[in-house]
Amino acid sequence: MSAESATAVPRPPARTAAAPVLTGAQAVVRSLELLGVTDVFGLPGGAILPVYDPLMDSTALRHILVRHEQGAGHAAEGYAAASNKVGVAIATSGPGATNLVTAIADAYMDSVPIVCITGQVFSNLMGTDAFQEADIVGITMPITKHSFLVKRPEDVPGAIAAAFEIAGTGRPGPVLVDITKDAQQAEAPFVWPPKIDLPGYRPVTKAHGKQIQAAAQLLAAAKKPVLYVGGGVIRSQASAELRALAETTGAPVVTTLMARGAFPDSHPQHLGMPGMHGTVPAVLALQEADLLISLGARFDDRVTGKASLFAPNAQVVHVDIDPAEIGKIRAAEVPIVGDLKDVLVDLDAAYRAAAATVAPDIAEWWSFLDGLRDEFPLGYSQPTDGLMSPQYVIQRIGELTGPEGVFAAGVGQHQMWSAQFIKYERPNSWLNSGGAGTMGYAVPAAMGAKVAEPDRQVWAIDGDGCFQMTNQELATCTINNIPIKVAIINNSSLGMVRQWQTLFYDGRYSHTSLNTGHGTMRVPDFVKLAEAYGCLAIRVEKEEDVDAAIQTALATNDRPVVIDFVVSADAMVWPMVPQGVSNSYVQYARDHAPAFEQED
């Protein structure tokens, strides 16, 4: 030690600038800005009003004023699902917050990362049944990854930052931040970055090596493997890694409703969508397989049919970032907890090593599957009532728009036809409410997707029933220059419910007629309604006019476009597996089922 250093006086730590003092409301806005948020969807009210004042001054945040809080929630979902970013919705207390519940539940079921910020009554009034009070934290506890109640202004930055961390990591999902009005109005030093303390929240991303090796050995030895691909592949942005593994193994691929676009439809190894309305090759591939490699899928009842009869001869490798999903429905011989983006790379390498010693032979399996593809191609029957085929309309929307488009669907027949007859070549191009089955999802989700991806053509493919639940967001689109395209598949009824009434209730159409289509009162008249909202409105009743209407919509980018496609009410979704039976009972069309080996 030198004499100079021995006698040096210790220097005081460098002075840091004093933390600015902000109100809790200002802290909300500043936190969002520092987290890189650029767009939020919301509707003000008394308990969230303090946040809306500084929001007006923000140059970094674009706030889009929706017409209903459910629209804000679905718009945040569409934004997130199209862009892989975290969506944000803002609402006031009481009914404002409870109007978000449907969208929150939807996001929870489909693993969509959104943060919902709600105002709450003054903390000293909580529990007194104050005006517009609702225990939104308690209400949403079962349908969020986490809910925060913030009562102090100094806790705002940490809660907002933690909400984004939780929503966007591990298995994505919705997070609620409920902030009392006094916490919004009071002041505190704004400290950034805040300390985030999340005890117990440690998502596992790197899988155990021995499990990867075991999965690779099973895959190399399998005679009838299937890659059963769920929405987790899209959420983990692992489509390229999935394709690499598929091409390495040569195994057939099926993509669930939530995974459409995770693997290109044009790829020769793709068998299509499995499940209740899946393709015959996809449904029977799972049923006849000796090995399922489940990738970010949750063995949903709409895929498995009667779970005890699903894939009876198959061993299961189940890969998921959420350990709670593994073994929940079907026991897995090889459970793997980890992020699919990493797991698929490791599994590809391990398979190559395993296949070097065990020569895989799945030629006979492919011969069987190709025979199914030849015998049971996806198709539809023309209606006999002279009205348009909805499948044709939807197919042309997909073909004329192309794979770079984004397609958001409501729930019901049009959802299934959109999943079947539009060809998806890339992830994040198909948005729908898969788990919750939420009518009214399409228009606000398309709005959110268009905000996130302004250079893409974005369609809401909706039913005449779904459209009437959230069509008020067309006003939001018109005023905010969000030129989405809306295709109403107007069969004048609650189509999927009507199909079930046809098949299972002897054609007793109890309360499913909506009087919007051909030969009815047309209440509402969708063309007049759309024009009232400032949209370009078109009605199409003949197939020869379909292409021109779609092309007009695609060429119109100065306002939203609504096309009322008047279609047959008799069209049905096929193939179909009736609820509660084995998938082996898949019907290709009415009174037409494939021959198969029956179970005992």
Automatic annotation (TrEMBL):
PROSITE patterns: TPP_ENZYMES. Gene3D superfamilies: 3.40.50.970, TPP-binding domain (3.40.50.1220). It catalyses: 2 pyruvate + H(+) = (2S)-2-acetolactate + CO2. The keyword Methyltransferase does not apply. The keyword Magnesium applies. Pathway: Amino-acid biosynthesis; L-isoleucine biosynthesis; L-isoleucine from 2-oxobutanoate: step 1/4; Amino-acid biosynthesis; L-valine biosynthesis; L-valine from pyruvate: step 1/4. Residues 23-137 form the Thiamine pyrophosphate enzyme N-terminal TPP-binding domain. Its EC number is 2.2.1.6. Residues 410-565 form the Thiamine pyrophosphate enzyme TPP-binding domain. Keywords: Amino-acid biosynthesis, Branched-chain amino acid biosynthesis, Magnesium, Metal-binding, Thiamine pyrophosphate, Transferase. Binds 1 Mg(2+) ion per subunit. Binds 1 thiamine pyrophosphate per subunit. Belongs to the TPP enzyme family. This is Acetolactate synthase. It comes from Microbacterium deminutum. The lineage of its organism: Bacteria, Bacillati, Actinomycetota, Actinomycetes, Micrococcales.
